[in-house]
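Exercise 7. Predict the structure of GTPase Der from Aliidongia dinghuensis.
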Amino acid sequence: MSFTAAIIGRPNVGKSTLFNRLVGQRLALVDDLPGVTRDRREGKARLGDIEFRVIDTAGLEDVTDQSLAGRMREQTERAIDDADVVLMVIDARAGVTPMDRHFADLLRRRSVPVLLVANKSEGKGGIAGAYESFELGLGDPIAISAEHGEGLSDLFDALVPYAGEPVDAAEGALADAPSAADGEAVEDDPAKPIQLAIVGRPNVGKSTLINRLLGEDRLLTGPEAGITRDSIAIEWAWRGRPIKLIDTAGLRRKSVIEHKLEKLSVADTLRAIRFAELVVLVVDATQMLEKQDLTIARMIEDEGRSIVLAVNKWDLIENKPAALEKLRDRLQISLPQLQGLTCIPVSGATGAGLDKLMKAGLDAHAVWNRRIPTPKLNRWLAEVQERHPPPLVDGRRLRLRYMTQANTRPPTFALFSSKPGELPDSYRRYLVNLMRETFDMPGTPIRVMLRKGANPYADKD
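Solution. The predicted structure, encoded as tokens:
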């Protein structure tokens, strides 16, 4: 990145809309309700032939105490400290407000350069507000419409002095390419960051856990439930392995979700799960494995992501061996499709267990990428049928002819049978569970696709 730009301003002036426009994706939640953004979000922005890091921030409030608004302001001030240039956004249609004047005064006292951006300037309604913003003393306003993409060439001209060498378009496109979707054959690249999503119910300590991993108060935390509203991605590394940590909003039951903003937050979390490679499901040790925890776990399994269970707030449990035994029993009964799921007791407050959690996560990710040789699979299949043959159908024994691994991420196998439609689900589950045990694949989703016909792989192995 050639430089860092922080987008600041009072609530509801279009900061997140501008952020989305600059990064070229709808990463930040946008709504008419003021104060949607709470944590600072970073992204790779591109404007013309310059590439830079951009930080979206919460709306500036004139609060300095330790309330939620005060803690949000602290996060914004840290973003200003990290920035090479600040984009102060005002609402041109609303004109200059007393709060705009207040924060313009604060910015003038800082050494960081400031560009004044008059958003919502499309049409005649924003002209008066754009001219009025000259009184803020931050230089000539840059009139734009983040929603419609107007005025970005003027913003580009203002940012050019802060940029280094221009970025090659093809190189930038390759760097921003998304990770492969489920079903594509992709090998694990140790140099590429692992997409690690932290998910769970509200107030189980997801953001606190990430702050402890990072060693800084990067994310907004507090006793209030539901502080995190949108998924925040943070570049990190653990023992030399690049990790992209993704903090997500808490998932509640559908029946209790009423507001549009929470629906948007849930959709953002589900998207994070869908594109993650590894998911850490955080549960509250004092409210062990509630129904919603199991629902989220099944959702992760349905998406085919590698998964580890983090039992947070373990420092509050008195009888730890009994609690762990109870947890394992519950998992065996309620999540048989994730047999052998790794459970790591942790404490976001003290940092206990976090190294074990990350090691278990990377081990689960390695299993998720594992490929089993076809000859080894078929020797195993022959032994299984000798020991426990498939059931009879119309008086004839089903034949399992051949098996091969069609894909990884998650491990996916093609099983060729004489009558695939007649094979009972119970026998398929038996094969999957035995495969986990034989090939050491605990807790990862495994897909077995039944096929009929000649063996198309006969000449390939």
